[in-house]
Write a structure and sequence with these properties.
Elements lengths: L1 E2 L2 E2 L10 H7 L13 H13 L5 H10 L1 H4 L15 H10 L2 H12 L9 E7 L14 E7 L4 E7 L4 H11 L7 E5 L5 H9 L3 E5 L5 H15 L10
Parallel strand pairs: 3-6, 6-7
Antiparallel strand pairs: 1-2, 3-4, 4-5
């Protein structure tokens, strides 16, 4: 704004880019296993995902195809002129700790607009996590997704306590003040609702056709409340 012939600007706190954040994260690999820098490998994975790849192998193949365009900006040409092997990416992701994911969650929360958006919470089975040798079912998690940013804000593995316990643990580590948490009505039981209210958030339940009894009960109760008999008619 202009004031007294001088222009003044409000100071703003710069927000780090995801690339800067990746470069500051500690590398969990041993020094002998660091053929490529961690930030560059994670950048390759992120770029592959942003271009529509849904599996790690697909992200790796995308990176190999576009190696000439991405290798230098991602710092992957240090001592290497060819793309990393698929197992290099797989080994790195398996070596990441929960604090790495928590660090990325914190970065996403710090982005402009991230504090006011609604959050969708739902249970998922991670694609590609099922194993035949040894037999192991697909990994089940509860996921929180920012509706505005369209990014996963956090995940919690479903363990002995089931989806409810996982949802409570996930919500307790997310900033909920001023936000609306949207979840399937079957997940919005008392412990989950209490966790949302304790975080000073609001909640909205979605009733789907896979809950026919609850759906029918709400229809039976809601219809006369919204449109009572005789409403909208004109008497003369």
């Amino acid at each position: 704004m202009l004031h007294g012939g001088e222009s003044t600007m409000s100071e703003s706190v710069p927000v780090k880019s995801v690339w800067e954040h990746l470069q500051e994260m500690p590398d969990p690999r041993s020094r002998r296993g660091r053929s490529y820098p961690m930030a560059g490998l994670l950048g390759l994975v992120i770029l592959g995902a942003l271009h529509g790849e849904c599996s790690l192998r697909g992200m790796w193949m995308w990176g190999c195809k576009h190696w000439q365009q991405i290798a230098r900006p991602l710092g992957l040409l240090i001592g290497r002129e060819h793309p990393p092997a698929y197992n290099t990416l797989r080994y790195l992701l398996r070596a990441l700790h929960t604090q790495h994911l928590a660090s990325l969650e914190a970065w996403m929360q710090a982005q402009p607009g991230g504090e006011a958006e609604a959050i969708s919470v739902d249970g998922k089975h991670l694609e590609g996590s099922r194993r035949l040798q040894p037999p192991r079912p697909a990994l089940e998690v509860v996921t929180a997704v920012g509706q505005e940013m369209k990014l996963v804000l956090g995940q919690e593995e479903v363990a002995a306590g089931g989806e409810v316990a996982a949802a409570v643990a996930l919500l307790k580590r997310l900033p909920l003040r001023g936000r609306v948490v949207v979840a399937d009505a079957g997940l919005l039981c008392r412990p989950v609702v209490d966790a949302i209210l304790e975080g000073e958030g609001d909640y909205l339940g979605v009733v789907k056709a896979n809950q026919p009894q609850l759906h029918e009960a709400l229809e039976t109760w809601g219809e006369p409340q919204i449109s009572p008999p005789g409403a909208g008619t004109t008497r003369r």
